[in-house]
Amino acid sequence: MKQQETLFAMPKPARAKPRQLMHVMDAGDYRGSFSADRPDRHCARFRCRRCELETEWIRMDTVSESKRGIPCPACNKVDSMFLPLKAEYFDAFVSGHKTTEYRQNGPRFNDATCKRFRRVVLSSGYGKHNRCLGMITEFSISQEPCERDDWKACFGDLVCDVACIEINAFPGVPVP
To answer: What's the predicted TM-score (pTM) here?
Structure first.
């Protein structure tokens, strides 16, 4: 049977390039400080089959969310969030001693711009020499960090909503 011709021949839209996903390599139950209000929370470690990049333990809401996979920050060329840091905090992220960055909640750092699994480029200052690739794993808003000594050293006695951005850093991965 011959296919009917369309009245208005419109070109088909270009198909989006498929995302490269990281898949679960290990999973389990998370027994953290928030377990009392969410006892069914799970955690998983992910690995990319293309570039062999591995994550640390990431908290997930459900097992199904883990099985779906997460986008690989090294293989997928998406827009990155640029975070310039002081050298001491950059070194702490690279060594793994620091996992959470605190910024003022506002138009640049909020729940819309700091989505889970978004790619992050951590930089020691604004230069292009010391950079590290990372991925946002959690985001929350709190006023508790305003009481910390390092917050007061940077912002003084400013009390405001603080964007708490948990980042999983990948020190050996080259930043494009």
So the answer is: 0.78
